[in-house]
Amino acid sequence: MLKEVNATRFITPLREGGSLPGLVEADDFGTYVLKFTGAGQGRKTLVAEVVCGELARRLGLRVPRLVTIGLDPVLGVGEPDEQVQELLRSSGGTNLGMDFLSGALGFDPLAFPVEAEEAGRILWFDALVNNVDRSWRNPNLLRWRGELWLIDHGATMIWHHNWPGAEASAARPYDASDHALAPFAPDVAAAAAELAPQVTEDLLAEVTAEIPDAWLSGEPGFDTPDDVRRAYARPLLARAAVVHERITGIEGAK
Ligand SMILES: Nc1ncnc2c1ncn2[C@@H]1O[C@H](COP(=O)(O)OP(=O)(O)OP(=O)(O)O)[C@@H](O)[C@H]1O
Ligand SMILES: [Mg+2]
Question: Would you give the end-to-end CA distance of the chain in angstroms?
């Protein structure tokens, strides 16, 4: 289970983010980036963050540690910004938090070369979860202490918006032509050989067990949160074996 903390102070909104994440302090004295359960994109965005973040971490990619953050809407009372106040008011209960990487820089492909091997592993992972949010325009990669860290996996696994079509979508190609790491000769074949065998049913069960029940219960078409967890695991398991053959738009790939 993800560590649970409670927000004690709202510090500031992070204005660059489309969903307006906030910076908060918690009762363990940690500083976290908080993604609101009441944000426009809804709780599925948070589920996607957990599934992808915890999967990527287990595949050896760097992702800030994730926690759940309990929020008392009363924290919004003194907040001058109306949009933030509204978000705080509508996000009582369980929200997503991640370690704030203090001093991290946005990834700049011109200033920071990436090895073909690492580029391949990140690109293969993005293809697996069908991440449409790692383009050169908006890389969602941070450079922290000389290394690359992955953030923002809210716009992945488009199939979770249409469960009946989920398994069919596992066969769809991934267009990598806009991917932030496409210029670094990503070695996707090596990544697939190394990572695909690690994406097992057991690993996916471990990953999906991290999703808080609160974000799964009442999902239309499912009886229990564990049924939804299995529905996340199935397309990923099927896709892992074949996705490297379905990557388009980069040299060396079909
Ligand atoms: N863990 C972190 N440590 C440091 N800075 C972070 C962290 N997470 C996010 N940020 C900063 O906040 C910005 C917004 O975060 P993120 O991309 O996750 O939000 P979003 O609302 O989903 O964004 P988008 O605009 O891509 O939809 C990032 O671009 C980055 O500058
Ligand atoms: Mg972002």
Answer: 39
Whole-prediction pTM value? 0.96
Give the class (CATH, top level) of 105-248. Answer: mainly alpha
Query: Per-residue pLDDT for 167 more than 60?
Result: yes
State the alpha helices, DSSP H only, in the chain.
Answer: 43-58, 82-89, 116-128, 166-169, 188-195, 201-208, 225-242
Q: Is the CB of 19 under 6 A from ligand 1?
A: yes
Distance 28 CA to ligand 1 centre (A): 22
Q: How far is the CA of 20 from the centre of ligand 2 (A)?
A: 10
Contact 157, 129 (CB under 8 A): yes
CB atoms within 10 A of CB 88: 26
Q: Which of 172, 227, 175 is nearest to 205 (CA)?
A: 227
Task: Go through the chain and tell me how many residues it has.
Answer: 254
Alpha carbon distance 207, 59 (integer Å): 11
Tokens 């490297």 sit at which residue? 244
In angstroms, what is the span from residue 155 Cα to ligand 2's centroid? 9
Choice from 152, 156, 178 to test ligand 1 binding pocket (greatest atom count within 8 A of CB): 152
pLDDT tens digits, one per residue of 4-38: 999 999 999 998 767 889 999 999 999 999 999 99
Residue 64 CA to ligand 2 centre (angstroms): 14
Atom of ligand 1 nearest to the CA of 100: 3
Per residue in 118-152, pLDDT (tens digit) is 999 999 999 999 999 999 999 999 999 999 999 99
Where along the chain do its domains lie?
3-99, 105-248
